[in-house]
Amino acid sequence: MCRRDPVSALGAAQGALASPCSCVLAVRSPPTAHLEVSSELGAAEGLAGRSLRGREHTELCPSLVTRCRHFCHTRVGAICPLALLHICCLVCVTWRVCRDPGMPWGPPASPPSSRRIFIIWAISSWFRRGPAPQEQSSAGGTPRAPSRNLFPKDTLMDLYVYISEHEHFTDFNVSSALFWQKRDLVYGDWTSGENADGCYEHYGEVDISQSVQQNGSIYIHVYFTKSGFHPDPRQKNLYRRLATVHTSRMINKYKRRRFQKTKNLLTGETEADPEMIKRAEDYGPVEVISHWHPNLTINMVDDHTPWVKGSVPPPLDQYVKFDAISGDYYPILYFNDYWNLQKDYFPINETLQRLPFRLSFCPLSLWRWQLYAAQSTKSPWNFLGEDLYEQSDEEQDSVKVALLETNPYLLALTIIVSIVHSIFEFLAFKNDIQFWNSRQSLEGLSVRSVFFGVFQSLVVLLYILDNETNFVVQVSVFIGLLIDLWKITKVMDVRLDRENKVAGMFPRITFKDKSTYVESSTKVYDDMAFRYLSWILFPLLGCYAVYSLLYLEHKGWYSWVLSMLYGFLLTFGFITMTPQLFINYKLKSVAH
């Protein structure tokens, strides 16, 4: 619902900004270009304020930016500033005057605002930009004509929802398969329903068979027909192809459940659940289990954009379906489970006979649908494998929860700190490389500390790989290890001894202290510092190893060694800075 009348807001924005960009383009472009760009701007305004009742948000026409770049003769990325201002003002006005139309996914109390969805979309869009859609032509070389929506505005519709174990549904005569039927819905109606937001809701329980209990799939089939028609093709008198829109999807979700089989290496005892231990023995350390979420929303996008087949930008092209004969497109149906958090899924097993299911139907604006579609796509991460998909889902959940539950000021501070931390980490890498790359003398520098740094980075990398940590963290640590290994070539003369080969096959790597390090007193002080340091570190390491072995559980001896070394370095790693301090003290200088 709107905070104030969106008619006057959108009208004022469009009226105030109607002329400037077109005038400027008229000066810089020929008359035909002026007319074409003006029509494009008119199309963008129409998309921004299509419904005078505030039913539409904004949508940037994909071809508008391209045409502005062409006719204004500007470079790529520098579109006409007034055209950009013209569109952005309409976006901002619509965004500020309209609230989120409500939570279309079920009963939770406080709906997330559109601006929070916009924040998620804006951040991820930097990493999900695809190539601009190419304008398609027909076989004869002429541009394809724009299509129209097969369901005009205010079309009366009937909704049929079937639930089946079959991906392709034909059991229209089975009454138990019909989960929900709703007649005389109005396409583009935002004022009906219990909450006067155009939304309807139905709750029921889904009977499941033994096949579904044992990791089988279950599908939802949604049909919208024009009022008076039926979705069953076998009913010739009541079925019309162009009057029926259908979509389906699997509504259970397969998730991997990993079991970390840990135990006390001395006693063999574990605090893990015995049932989980048995399942791990039967199914292995990774088990694929079907999960269920009790909420799902069916959105019908209130959109009448003249899409051109082949020119719909991704990822929207996955949802816009064109009729092969008429060339027009069906209403866009979207299964909205964006706010279904991973923690709310529960496993389907033999103890469940029925599954609770709350299904909602809501209209959806084109602008919000674009946000949801952009967030739902995972194609840029295909090369990372399915394991990264699950990590991505969990990370998105943490972002959603943070946006919904965190104080806005604290959230802004967290984002700023995270950005500053990333910048500092990059600068640290850069300055570290610059320092060692330009270093000519090693006087006053602890060479042993460089080798110890390599050991630390290697332990951390092996530990996070053993515990399947976040991929981004793994990359960051790996880059740090490469930099530490490169430093060795700067503090020592590294040579390949091809005469004395290892196992008679591989050249032997030899290390020799640089002359600037040996000839100065730095080497003496460095050896002395590490000798004193070993008197403290080795007893502490032994005590921590005994404690870890007696009181903590581990997957095996390899994991124990890694976790013991990692925990020790986290606890006492700061002591390794003392050799450089000792050298500075002995040389009475920090100028080096």
Cα Rg: 32 Å
Structural class: alpha+beta
- Main sheet characteristics: 4 strands, antiparallel
Helix content: 40-55%
Strand order of the largest sheet: 2-1-4-5
Strand tally is 13
- How many helical stretches? 17
Uncertain spans: 1-115, 126-135, 379-385
Report the average pLDDT across residues: 75
Beta-strand level of the residues, as a percent range?
15-25%
Task: Quote the distance from N terminus to C terminus.
Answer: 67 Å
Describe the protein in words:
The protein has 592 residues and is an alpha+beta fold. Among the domains are: 155-251 and 293-379, no CATH class; 441-516, no CATH class; 519-591, no CATH class. The protein is built from 17 helices and 13 strands. Strand 12 and strand 13 (506-513) form a beta hairpin. The chain is elongated. It starts with 5 loop residues before the first helix and ends in a 5-residue tail after the last helix. The model is unreliable at 1-115, 126-135 and 379-385 (pLDDT under 50).
In short:
With 592 residues, the chain is α+β, with helices and mostly antiparallel strands. Helix content is 43%, strand content 16%.
Task: Please render the helix and strand layout as text.
Elements: H1 6-16, H2 20-28, H3 31-48, H4 62-71, H5 81-97, H6 114-125, E1 156-164, E2 178-186, E3 200-207, H7 210-213, E4 219-226, E5 244-250, E6 253-258, H8 274-283, E7 286-292, E8 295-301, E9 333-336, E10 346-347, E11 354-364, H9 366-376, H10 386-405, H11 408-437, H12 447-466, H13 471-491, E12 492-502, E13 506-513, H14 515-518, H15 522-551, H16 557-572, H17 578-587
Parallel strand pairs: 8-11
Antiparallel strand pairs: 1-2, 1-4, 3-11, 4-5, 6-7, 7-10, 8-9, 12-13
Helix pairs in contact: 1-5, 2-3, 2-5, 3-4, 3-5, 6-9, 11-13, 12-13, 12-16, 15-16, 15-17
Main location: membrane
InterPro entries: CLPTM1 (IPR008429)
Keywords: Membrane, Transmembrane, Transmembrane helix
